[in-house]
Structure prediction request, 218 residues.
Amino acid sequence: MKRFWAAVALGLCLAGSGADAAIFQTTFTGTIVSGNDDTGVFGTPNADYVGQSFVATYVFDNSLGNHVPNAVGEALFSGDQFGTPTALVSATFELNGHTVSFDGNWYAIANALSNQNGHYLIMDTPPTPTFAHGMDNQLGVPFPVDVGVPFSATGHGGGGISYFDPGQSATFNFDTTSIDVRILGGAVPEPQTWAMLIVGFSLCGAFARATRSGHPAP
Prediction:
């Protein structure tokens, strides 16, 4: 009986202490090379932003959505369109002193591809805002092929962003000069995971006390 409870305790301890998938942040920086802010999403309508700096930041929960490997890397698909909770925690694009935030409940994709790293597509339930961002792998360095792997590089690479909302639109092409992927922390456990954590650690404690006293755990 003692061996049985030892096995149960060990199993739940391991389950409770296992590493959760990480929340990761991807940040792109660069400068605008062409495009137009038709309706003033980032300030004045039809203003010329060529040469201005931008920062695009995405935060994803790597434990959500579907990870789909392919010949050149991996893609993380999530959102109502794919029948999963969105993996997107937040997405922002900063330009001309303005920051626009986006949700991805309908469609949120993060790609890590050896030939085109950092391709992100964010979409709320139509017809709410659509936010698309692609960055070609032209920085002159090899990219990891797993979503969320810490990574940073500098150089020059093409890319573009499009924003569409009823009555608002902006589309830009840019020169990406840096990419940084970093881990922010562990993913938030689901309720059933919390229950297993509590039971597991309780049994771990009971088993440890029983081991010290020389008596089997109840």
